Write the structure tokens for this entry.
Amino acid sequence: MRQEIALKKIIEYTARKASSLNQRYEIEDLVAPSIADLVDRSMERIALTLVKRNGGLWCNLCSKGPFTKRGLYLHLIRVHTKDIEFMVREEMKRILDGIKKDRQQRYG
Ligand SMILES: [Zn+2]
């Protein structure tokens, strides 16, 4: 349950990043401090794939636009939450698997 809430907030965080809106949360509030930087970089990467900046803000998933920052954010959250959730889940899984592997290598 707590994880689902965190996931929702991370999706919001990523959509805000894509739309260049101010954040309501710090990434450190959403994930463990030890992986905050890693997660932030991954969400930055996802954010870049969500938006096309071409004389305005365009949705890179369905080519709609141009949007205002707020408009793009609302579009991403309303229309593409599932897409973003999938990308976020994949990235989080990749990060956590990477940490697990790293620990196994270090401690056997
Ligand atoms: Zn779209």
Observations:
- The chain has one domain: 2-107.
- The chain has a mean pLDDT of 94.
- Residues 58 and 65 are 5 Å apart (CA to CA).
- The chain has five helices and two strands.
